[in-house]
Structure formats: C-alpha cells, structure tokens
Amino acid sequence: MDIAKIEKGYNKINLWLVVALTLLGLLLSQVLLKPNLVTPMVVSSIFFIVTSKLYGKAWKYFATNSPKVLGRFYLAGSMLRMFLAVIVILIGALVYRGDSEKILTYVAVFVVYYITAMILDCVYFFRIEKNNKINNKKI
Q1: Residue ranges covered by each domain of the chain
Q2: Which residues contact 45 (CB under 8 A, 6 or more apart)?
Q3: What is the pLDDT, as a whole number, of residue 76?
Q4: d(CA 112, CA 106)
Q5: What's the pTM?
Q6: What is the Cα–Cα distance from 12 to 15, expressed in whole angstroms?
Q7: Separation between Cα atoms, residue 75 and residue 118, nearest integer Å
Q8: 3-state SS assignment for residue 11
Q9: What is d(CA 49, CA 22) in angstroms, rounded to the nearest whole number?
Q10: Which helix (H) or strand (E) holds 90?
Q11: 134 pLDDT above the threshold of 50
C-alpha cells in the first residue's frame, strides 16, 4: 500500500471517529440535560483532530525517509501526545478551578477521546506493520 494512501486513510478514520464521539456526546448531553459536556467535547475534538493530523504527517515523513526508526517514532509520538494531553487537562482544570463537577466532566470527556485515539493508533498501525511484514515490503 502506498504511504500517502495509508496516511490519508488514517486521517479519514480518525476524523470519522472524532465526529462520531462528538455526535454521541452531544446526544448524551441532550438526553441527560448536561450542557457542561459541550465545552470539553469541543476542546477534545479540536485537540485530537490537530494532533492526529500532525501525527499522520510525521508518520508519513518517517515512513518515507527512515522506515527503520518507525518503532521509536510510535513510542515518541505517543509520549509527545500524552504530554500535550496532560498540559491540556491541566489548563482545563485551571480554567474550571473551584467547580469540581466541571473539572471531572472535562477530564472524563478528554480521557474518553484520548483512549479512543490511542486504540485507533495501535490497531491501525499494527495492521499496517503486520501487512508490511507479511508482504515483505519496506515502507
């Protein structure tokens, strides 16, 4: 499979996943009458769309220029995303300080998006690497 197609597929699946989570969250917000879910969903959606786009571009760069370091890239990319996520959570906690319910809601929503994004990354790139090894191709 072509590297550009792999990156495009990753970005497409990730966008669909973020949209699905956001729509599900908006439905849940309306059913439970919890309007305080909207802001965390917007922040989480923007964060994960931007970081996933950058992750996909970085993966494409490393897969094209130095495929032997992809294992280290997966580790470093996930760690960088985790550190950025912690920073965003801390900023959200500072914004909502004094209101523990909003802080817990913000963190819970963000963690749902984060875990979903990590599962997508693991499954998607595991399949890519597995297919790469089976076909004896070098990306």
Answers
A1: 3-134
A2: 18, 21, 22, 113
A3: 93
A4: 10
A5: 0.86
A6: 5
A7: 12
A8: helix
A9: 12
A10: helix 70-95
A11: no
Find the helix or strand (DSSP H, E) in which 129 lies: helix 100-134
Instruction: Please write the tens of the pLDDT for every residue from 41-92.
Output: 999 999 999 999 999 999 999 988 888 888 899 999 999 999 999 999 999 9
* CA dist., res. 72 & res. 135, Å (int): 22
**Interior/surface letters 21-38, b for 16+ CB within 10 angstroms, e for the rest:** bbeebeeebeeeeeeebe
The whole-angstrom separation of Cα 117 and Cα 123 is 10
Contact residues for 35 (Cβ-Cβ < 8 A; gap 6+): 29
Contact 40, 92 (CB under 8 A): yes
Residue with tokens 């220029």: 65
Amino acid 26 reads L
